[in-house]
Write a structure and sequence with these properties.
The chain has 633 residues and is an alpha+beta fold. The protein has 18 helices and 13 strands. A 5-stranded mixed beta sheet has the order 9-8-7-10-11, with helices on both faces. The chain has a 4-stranded antiparallel beta sheet with strand order 1-2-5-6, with no helix packed on it. The chain has a two-stranded antiparallel ribbon with strand order 3-4. InterPro entries: DUF8040, HARBI1-like, HARBI1_dom, Myb/SANT-like_dom.
Length: 633
């Protein structure tokens, strides 16, 4: 048989398909065996499919034609159909087996994990119970063992601690959590305030994670601050029939106010405004207290370089800030203005007379002595809270954003302790060792400005004191006054040379990067430059250059605040303002009156030196808004 272009199409156990790429097939005699064209075409042509049958060692070529097909070919075709059916069944069986295998494997894995979780949960349950009992034993040792250990660890005895927990739970919304009871949360908070401990130490002390300690500290802090109206002391002025020798002369007085510094943690780039005159990074805190050492108002968060008068001005202008009714006042130091609502001592007179071991010689000295004796309550208050809470006297580990609320919370808890503990050992200790140098809002004082009326009132009060005292003590000695140190008068040429030296020093970068734009010791560098530019001036780093720098910074602060509110004439280098707004402005801003229209030629250059050191009070907080809380993240 003659075949043309045979190709193998598939192989079976018993034979193979042969695809003939021809229209017909002839035998050896040339007779056409088959020309079946009913099969699918291959390559656009008809094709014949034959099967080679292997039997008895001979190969028989059979066609798939329907007519004239040998019996052997029919049998083979039936067998082929059966084989295809078996192949399909085999594929179905394999697929079903694979699906069943996957399902069994999935069920076994689920069962394994379910069993594992069950075992782990039982183990964790036993471990949690053990940890719970261990933590409660730790609480018993730290708080509930005795009043002595409780005061050492959380600064209050057991009964007062229980009372505080009840107040925070019933009025502040403090709640037990799944993993920590409310008393442990409060104890942890008080322990951090009392000892200023790091999280790494508290983890071992309370057997809690650092994240848990931080989260519950913020939670309790928010609750305490939310109850500030509960803890602040109500204002009661000194009555007319007061018998206390320290206060009977100050009728209508509400207490005393002053500022103090608290060290804070500030990013390096933001430290300049927080640097104090002593070079420490601090925040300026305004505290107001009563004569029984209880805080009535606290404003915390101002930069350390801010003047006390600026902080006070911010306090009384806040919507819910410090309110002083007409006819009442506070005792304050000379850093504030002697005006309506604020009674200061006399400048240029002895103040802490007990330190000099002598008697007063005139009315002003006697007034200062009694003013000091009464105003000392605010200094004692600051001494008490810093002795009680280490977080206020040491370098804090908390960010500057949290410190204002922490400071206020310390004052609030101080009030609670003072009102509930029958005996405060710290009070006598601070009284002995502490020394420090020198809401109806329609009828309240809302400005801080000098007042001749209050100056006269102070004079009358001082004379009354002295006449009363002089009647009992016949003292007529006078004390010689020291002569004032001669002052250097700076010329325009010297000012120009000084500002040129400062700019040159600032550009060199040698002393840049600290308070006033310079590091300590920069005055000597300025003196060296002035010795070259002004060889015969005789200007020294101290006192002439230092005094001039202080004057410039004071003037710059006044002008800087004015430029932000009014216009600036670039050509004349002076502040310009309308009469209507200017008159109102100078009433509440001491020292601003002389700078309207006054030339300040070095303002632009001083902005480069002092501009970044300006205190703005942007982070100051007094809890006037009840929604001021720390996010619990």
């Amino acid at each position: 048989m003659e075949l043309v272009s045979l190709r193998v199409g598939g192989i079976w156990e018993w034979g193979m398909f042969i695809e003939v790429d021809s229209d017909y097939v002839r035998d050896s005699n040339g007779v056409i065996v088959s020309n079946n064209r009913r099969l699918n075409p291959v390559g656009g042509r008809s094709a014949l499919v034959f099967r080679v049958i292997l039997g008895g060692g001979l190969a028989t070529l059979s066609t798939g034609a329907s007519s004239g097909v040998p019996l052997t070919c029919v049998s083979e075709l039936l067998f082929e159909k059966t084989a295809r059916s078996l192949a399909r069944r085999r594929l179905v069986a394999i697929g079903a087996f694979y699906v069943m295998y996957v399902m069994i494997r999935w069920w076994m894995m689920c069962s394994y994990h379910r069993l594992r979780r069950s075992i782990e949960s039982r183990a964790l349950g036993k471990k949690y119970l053990m940890s719970y009992h261990n933590r409660r034993e730790n609480m018993m040792r730290m708080v509930y063992e005795s009043d002595v250990t409780s005061i050492v660890n959380i600064r209050m005895n057991i009964d007062d601690f229980s009372t505080l927990c009840d107040i925070l739970e019933n009025r502040g919304g403090q709640k037990n959590s799944k993993n920590m009871l409310a008393d442990e949360q409060v104890a942890m908070f008080l322990h951090i305030l009392a000892h200023n401990a790091k999280n790494t130490i508290l983890v071992n002390r309370f057997h809690r994670s650092g994240e848990t300690i931080s989260r519950y500290f913020k939670l309790v802090l928010n609750v305490v601050c939310r109850l500030h109206k509960e803890f602040y002391k109500s204002l009661v002025p000194v009555p007319d029939n007061e018998t206390d020798e320290r206060w009977k002369w100050f009728k209508g007085c509400l207490g005393a106010l002053d500022g103090t510094y608290v060290k804070v943690k500030v990013p390096v780039a933001d430290r300049k405004p927080y640097r104090t005159r002593k070079g420490e990074i601090c925040t300026n805190v305004l505290g107001v207290c009563t004569r029984d050492l209880l805080f009535t108002y606290v404003l915390a968060g101002w930069e350390g370089s801010a003047a006390d008068s600026s902080v006070l001005r911010d306090a009384i202008t806040r919507p819910n800030g410090l309110k002083i009714a007409q006819g009442t006042y506070y005792l304050c130091d000379v850093g504030y203005t002697n005006g309506e609502g604020f009674l200061t001592r006399y400048r240029g007179q002895r103040y802490h007379l007990n330190d000099w071991s002598r008697l007063p010689t005139n009315a002003k000295e006697l007034f200062n002595m009694r003013h000091s004796s009464a105003r000392n309550v605010i200094e004692r208050c600051f001494g008490l809270i810093k002795a009680r809470w280490a977080i206020l006297r040491d370098n804090s580990y908390h960010p500057i954003e949290s410190m204002p609320r922490i400071i206020i919370a310390c004052c609030l808890i101080h009030n609670f302790i003072r009102q509930t503990m029958s005996e405060d050992l710290l009070d006598s200790e601070v009284l002995t060792n502490h020394t420090q140098p020198g809401n109806d809002h329609d009828n309240v004082i809302s400005t801080v400005e000098p007042s001749q009326e209050w100056t006269d009132r102070r004079d009358v009060l001082a004379n009354e004191m002295f006449n009363n005292w002089n009647a009992r003590h016949m003292a007529n000695s006078n004390v010689a006054r020291g002569t004032e140190r001669s002052k250097h008068t700076w010329t325009n040429d010297e000012d120009e040379k000084l500002i040129h030296a400062l700019m040159e020093l600032h550009a060199s970068g040698k002393y840049a990067g600290a308070d006033n734009g310079f590091k300590p010791g920069y005055l000597n560098g300025v003196q060296q430059l002035l010795d070259i530019s002004l060889p015969n001036s005789g200007l020294k780093a101290e006192p002439q250059i230092k005094s001039r720098m202080k004057t410039w910074k004071t003037h710059f602060s006044v002008v800087y605040d004015m430029v932000g509110r009014f216009g600036w004439d670039e050509e004349r280098k002076c502040v310009v303002a309308e009469d209507s707004v200017w008159d109102e402005y100078v009433k509440s801003h001491k020292g601003a009156a002389s700078f309207r229209g006054k030339q300040f030629p070095f303002y632009d250059k001083l902005c480069i030196i002092f501009g970044k050191d300006r205190a703005t009070g942007s982070k100051a907080i007094d809890l006037g808004e009840e929604d001021d809380v720390i996010p619990e993240t």
